[in-house]
Amino acid sequence: MAETHATTSMAGYPYVDIVDFVERTTYQIWNDKQPELVPNWYLPGTIIWTDGGDMVGEAVVTRDTIDRRRGFSDYYGIIDDTIWTGDDERGYRTSMRWIARGTHDGVSSLGEPTGRKLVNSSISNCIVVGDQYVEEWAAGNGKAFVEQLGFSLEESVANNRRSKMPLGDEAAATTKSFGATVPAMPGVIDGAGAVVREVLDGLYNRRDLTVADRHYAPGAPYSFGTTRLGFGPEGAKAEVQRWLDLLPDLRLELDELYWNDDSPQRSRVAVRYRVTGTATNAAGEERPVSVMCLHHIHVRGDLVTAEWVEYNEVALLAQVGAR
Fold first, then answer.
1. For a 10 Å CB count at each end of the chain, is N or C smaller?
2. What percentage of the chain reaches a pLDDT higher than 70?
């Protein structure tokens, strides 16, 4: 079942609701240039899972935030949407989509400044208990990041770190260990959630591209990060076909699915899943691939009216190997 648009209280904390908490703390840390506030909302055991390598603990998150700000003095993000589920008792799951812009004008772990402009989109799915971020899954396109700054893609691929994120029952147990019992998917998947589940299963697992013809509105934008934009059924099918060409034995497994109903016919859906399969690289080697994907999907009735997709192409290239 979906959550209604009005959220519960976050009782005892100085926030209007869970959306206010996520957006206000993000803006304070990043746009207000206050990385020293990270320990207020992240714990020593907080884990951020990414396909470019994981981060554990508020000290690591603080250092990473300071480093990014050193490299981009004008780094500034705008949150486009936050989708949520949960309550004060069970904890919350939130999915925040934003776009940040900045000029690479400072020395940081990235090296000497290039003076280049950056537009960087991402989606972050978080677990919130009380007023603490305890677990997070984040995805953005590392390939777009390095190409905009003129860095070596080959070097970035070679240096990519694999995630140790747990899957399935182990993932649920990890989340529960942080004190959160809000489920990754509701017990009843209906409405917009059922539409999105059918779309993903039909396109990827059943390889039935006519699902896009039935469930994507004409002209519906399909955006992959800041690098690819398609429209309508053909835009969705083009992205799916890229995956099927790369991974003929592709399987898609849902890890998170929840949504907010803004009206009886209009909903915003957050979904996280993992694509697995076997790729054959340019050297003829067969390589196992496992990539996390995060989507925000707008649904009207049984039609997708807009979709935003994030995954890390640097991690994908690193797993595929020789180009």
1. C
2. 97
Tokens of 282: 């340019």
Beta partners for residue 86, in sequence order: 92
For the stretch 226-258, pLDDT in tens is 889 999 999 999 999 999 999 999 999 999 999
Domain residue spans in the chain? 3-177, 191-320
CATH of domain 3-177: 3.10.450.50
CATH topology of domain 191-320: Nuclear Transport Factor 2; Chain: A, (3.10.450)
Cα gap 178→309, rounded to integer Å:
28
Give percent of the chain with pLDDT exceeding 90. 89
C-alpha to C-alpha distance for 297 and 279, rounded to whole angstroms: 27
Confidence (pTM): 0.94
Mean pLDDT over the full length of the chain: 94
Number of H helices and E strands in the chain, helices first, is 10, 13
Give yes or no for residue 4 having a pLDDT over 80.
no
> Do residues 125 and 270 touch, judged by C-beta distance below 8 A?
yes
Residues 6+ apart with CB under 8 A from 294: 95, 123, 125, 137, 139, 270, 271, 272, 309, 310, 311
CB 307 within 8 A of CB 220: yes
